Fold:
Amino acid sequence: MSRKNSTPETTAPTPALSDEQHPDYQAYVYGDDEDDSVAEAGDLGPDGPGLPGIPPLNPIPDLPIPNIPGIPLKICSAVSGRYKLKTVLPPIGGPGIPILNLTTVTVRVDVDRFYPQKRISIEVTRLLPRSMAHLIANVTSDKCTGLNRRKIQATIAYREGNNALIPGEKLLFEASRGLGVGYSTYKLTVTGTGTPTRVYNLDFVSQYFDDVEFEVDKVDNAGNPSTDYSTHSHPNRPASLPNEVLSLENVYKRAGFNATISPNSAPIPATGAGANGTWSDSEMHNAMQTYWSRFANKPQWVLWVLFANQHDTGYGLGGVMFDDIGPNHRQGTAIFTNSFIQDAPAGDANPVAWRQRMLFWTAIHEMGHAFNLAHSWQKALSGPGYNPWIPLLNQPEARSFMNYPYNVSGGQSSFFSNFDFRFTNEELQFMRHAPRRFVQMGNENWFSNHGFEAPQPELFTGRYKLEVRPNRENNTYSFLEPVSIELKLTNTSTEPLALDEHLLQDGGHIVLFVQKDSGTVRKWEPLIVRCHQEHKSMLAPGESIYGTHLVSASTSGWLIDEPGFYNIQAGVDMLDEVVMSNVLRVFVAPSTDTEENKIAPDYFTEDVSRALVFDGAPELGKAMDTLKEVADKLPGTPASFHAAKAVAGPMLKQYKRLEEKDGSLAVVAGKADVDEAVRLQTAALLDEPQKAADTFGHIDYFQSLETLADVLNESGKKAEAKKVMSSSISTMKSRNVLDEVIQQAEAKAKNL
Amino acid sequence: MIVEIHFQEGFSNEKAQLLVDGDVVEEFSLSTRFQLGMAAIKKVDVASGTKVRVVLPDRNIRQQVPVSHRYVKVSLEDGKLTISPTDQMPGYV
Structure:
């Protein structure tokens, strides 16, 4: 069974063997003459019987393969890795038909390369309505039918989430070559009794199942621990262990992750450990926030690895995955160089190598906890909040990074004599194929899933109604006119509901998509996202909250620019449900003015969109010039109203700018030009109030008038301020604005 | 001699008492940290003939701990305490 080399001790270690050089790497499989070859079972692994039920397939032992003329070669190179859906065709949009169906499909095929687990797992995520499905299938057949023509069948054995997203029972994964030698097409077919057959064309993404980055930082009194281990440096080892230098990242690469080491590591001063020189979990957590360049307290495939001198617990603690506090667990681990892992047994043949091996083993072990791996003897542990992700058996004798070497029968000597520097098959199945939130750092809580969560039902409670509306009589916009839409969320239940009053306005809780005609759906990302303290207020039955957004432009560019029809749909994340809006269909009219066409190339730029959203941005000089041009040359158009308002915005107050002065930066307040600002804004907002209210939308329009009134009032022009508020109130009344809002405006006008 | 009592696996919000010669010297709560396989380490200064007991009052468990070795490992398995004295310092990772 063994395919491993036995390398003489005297041979110098190579840096980590390349994949193809390593005896555990399966680069090829081939079919037999009966054309019925099937997949090779994975290496039995260090923990027991391996994966039952998969007949063996013959790996190609050596290359090159003789090419015998006339005899078709049945050689298939490795296909293990991550795939994604080749294309996502946008659904056909139209009035009333949801345009949001953004679905991602990730397929992980695990049949060759390192330690194949004979599994195919599929992850389907639909953004809105938010839903996900995850399934794992056991490979039942793996045929190489010709040169790089591979057919792999599998039966679904595990499901989580919304089965309707990918119904079926069996999978067929096919990889085929085109005109060249290598694979060029990948296809996954899902079939089942009573369910339609679904075919997914796939793109190969990576030979790894996920990417992960490790940042290794060392406290300056931790010595200078090496993060490598030369596998033949200690004589107590399996005879078949290849002679190479292992690193943290290549152990995890062989586990299936594209592991990289961050270049941002930096020595940490020992003073960070506090007066006593040892580290508590809390201190390490603080250090992680301070020193880790990628700290973000959110789920991400990154991990902080700290080498420190000693933990508060004392010499008996060799390392710990300390991050089991706060909302995002498993982001940081620590290894302690001044601990029992330095205690080579008396009389050991090579104590220096023994220590280095323990240090290396400990680092991989702690990092394994960050992937949510439990100790080998704790696999079956279950209880409230910490069930295993699938039923597992304890493996107290496993030769795994996750076992304690000194606790197996025969102690550490026995362990390392038979340790191949790898994880067990069960651990690899979890790391490679479990729902990613169970594994990803900062996601599922430590030791939880490792457990199997009940599928999350899609909750659509009917408590809310979300409307997207233009707040104008018709949905036609002129060329260059920014499209502002209003969101209205109504409590449609019979009970008062508590919700954050900024929910629709802050940009952080809504998701919005724009589709041009029936074409590509693009996500709108707000140019401003406001973080504020959550302030919940009670919304009585029938009451609503509102928000307004300029949706023409996004951080990714202009979404609404050319003439034509657009569909707009929004969703709001209420934590326990996503409330979807209607689909708003708007029309952008063609240009009727040659001047508009001339300005358009300068207008549809990121800077102009920012200047519009921020109500002016003096630093974006070219954009401001373009807006002045629009205001001057296209008077009376909705676009000119927006442009004039933005041009006037910075003049309304002493606009602060960061300027370089005498070699350093200083904040300099500019001079307000209230008269000019008022002139521009009066033209934009008050000359044609109905038209202006149409294009700005109620919320933005009436807020702008209030701001203008405040500026006038502060400038001593009370009469003019009152005139602005009077016009505002009059327009509100004519447009059936809520009485409550009108009353507030009247009160303001009275107090001027 | 100082004896270290290492409370290891199986504890979850478990009330515990440490008794030395019949007197309660410490009361504490035990929860195993899964990433270490350890809940707490308690040190007891003992002389020849000292009797040390671990009590889990909620389970009505009262068990004597041998003090002949430098370390004693204590776990809770199937509702019972398993106690293993050793001279090898238990290590955790």
User: Anything to note?
Assistant: Chain B has a mean pLDDT of 95. Chain B touches chain A through 14 residues (CB under 8 Å). Residues 2-86 of chain B form a domain with the Immunoglobulin-like fold (CATH 2.60.40).
